[in-house]
Amino acid sequence: MPRSTPSTLPARRRPTVKGRAAATENALIREILSIQVEYVDSEEFHRPGAERRLFDEAPSVRPPDVTWYRPLMDPVGTATIKPVRSKESIVLTAAEERTIFLQYNYARFRVRRMQEQIKSPHPGVRQRQELLRWYGQAQRLRHQIAESNLALVLAMSKRIRLGDMEFGDLISEGNMALLRSIDKFDVGRGFKFSTYSCRAILKAFSRHGGKHLRYQQRFGITYDPEFERSNYPEDRRAEELRDSADEVKHLVLGNHADLTEVEREVIHHRFRIGPGEAAGLRYERPRTLAQVGKLIGLTKERVRQIQNKALRKLRFAVEERSLPRHDMEPEITRGYMSTN
């Protein structure tokens, strides 16, 4: 059998624009059928000619003007041009609210009926078009209602104290509460939407404040961007080492550890700590045990013993400075002094 060459292999076709649109539509339909769409029922939906009365014969609702809202959400200094706000009011009247909420819930009602009627995961063309039409209508109306009532979130945010809460987080919580209110509001009860949604927004602010307070109680350190970019642990460790070295130099130069002349000389040659430190003189590189032994006429092992004894004295002196002498155990003190 002849071996296939790259020229004889079938070319892989790239999806066309139409194919990508069909794939997106199929994914959206599967998503709609997988969720249970809720709606607020009304007697108007079950009467003959409901669609004609609610959409064709109902007065049109004016679209909201939200050009004033976006600059408020932009970071400080990013908005270069201040938009001109329209003089038309964006507050809906009671009749407009009734019309748009009935349309919104009727669209969700039709989507729910389509979900109950469609039993196959691959509905027909007509059912697909009907389902997408009512779902898109519901989403558009929900978006319009939310934009018409954005001012409620800002108005409610002025009634509470922000404290150290972020303004953007607070507005986000209010907007989510506004969307939940849209889904649950029953216009048939005769109340204004603002009466229902304002309480829901304030309650969302209260929940957010409680969560923020509990977070602060558990994690007391506030976030600091400079702290994230700093090398704090290493800098802190280096500072502690410098402080410890300065304290040891002070003990050696003042002979507060009762070192003998030989011990001071060994420490001086091994660690370059001596009288020249107080005068600001710079020493050469520290010498090895063998080099120090040649200088003072002792063996390498004897120099190591003297060095360790001097270091124990210095360590004891450091502990004495940090812990009062009467707090230390007498047995430990007598045992240490007996070894010297």
Describe this structure in words.
The protein has 340 residues and is mostly helical. It has three domains: 23-71 and 91-148, no CATH class; 149-222, Four Helix Bundle (Hemerythrin (Met), subunit A), CATH 1.20.120.1810; 230-339, Orthogonal Bundle (Arc Repressor Mutant, subunit A). It has 15 helices and no strands. The longest helix has 26 residues, at 193-218. It is elongated.
List the main descriptive attributes of the protein structure presented here.
3 domains; Four Helix Bundle (Hemerythrin (Met), subunit A); single chain; 63% helix; Arc Repressor Mutant, subunit A; 340 residues; elongated; mainly alpha
Quickly name the level 1 CATH class of the largest domain. Answer: Mainly Alpha
Task: Give the oligomeric state of the chains in this entry, treating copies of one chain as homo and distinct chains as hetero.
Answer: single chain
Sheet having the most strands:
none
Q: First CA to last CA: what distance?
A: 94 Å
Task: Based on Cα principal axes, name the global outline.
Answer: elongated
Q: Which SSEs are present, and which pair or pack?
A:
Layout: H1 17-34, H2 50-56, H3 70-73, H4 94-117, H5 125-148, H6 150-157, H7 167-184, H8 193-218, H9 225-229, H10 232-253, H11 261-271, H12 275-279, H13 289-296, H14 300-322, H15 330-339
